[in-house]
Specification:
It is a single chain. With 137 residues, the protein is an alpha+beta fold. The protein has three helices and six strands. Strands 1, 2, 3, 4, 5 and 6 form a six-stranded mixed sheet that branches. Helix 1 packs across helix 3. The chain is globular, with a radius of gyration of 14 Å. The structure holds zinc ion. Zinc ion binds next to strand 3.
């Protein structure tokens, strides 16, 4: 797991999703950082307030995120010791590796940059490039 940074943040995440993340990180030529795994209801409420009743930009649309149930992870490329949130090509590479690893394991996942799974990423509203969640659970 040398390619996975902050792997401890996978604690409590669904075992199938953890296996997909580990396999995906092994396919990539750069390290992947686990930004967030399980999220408490309180933290989700805090995130939901952001851009609404609290300062900042809107970062979530729901109070019932799959993160609360351990069915989602946020991943980002980790280059030279930091995350480059604007390197969308690397987020795309992570997505490709995640879908490949999921297919190998018979897991169905959804990507935050292609919610409707039509193969066209970052359409209107599809702005959550780090987010992957298990579908059908
Ligand atoms: Zn997420």
């Amino acid at each position: 797991m040398k390619n996975l940074v902050n792997a401890n943040r996978l604690a409590g995440v669904n075992a199938q999703l953890v296996a997909v993340v580990i396999a995906a990180s092994g396919k990539l030529p750069f390290p992947v950082c686990v930004v967030e795994g399980v999220r408490s209801k309180a933290r989700q409420a805090q995130l939901y307030a952001q851009g609404r009743t609290a300062p900042g930009r809107v970062v979530t649309w729901t109070l019932k995120s799959k993160h609360i149930d351990g069915l989602a992870v946020d991943l980002a490329p980790y280059i030279d010791g930091k995350i480059d949130w604007n390197d969308l090509k690397k987020f795309d590479a992570i997505a490709q590796a995640m879908f490949a690893a999921a297919a190998e394991r018979g897991a169905k996942i959804r990507w935050g940059a292609d919610w409707d799974a039509d193969g066209k990423s970052r359409e209107r509203g599809e702005s959550d490039s780090p987010h992957f969640e298990l579908v059908g659970l």
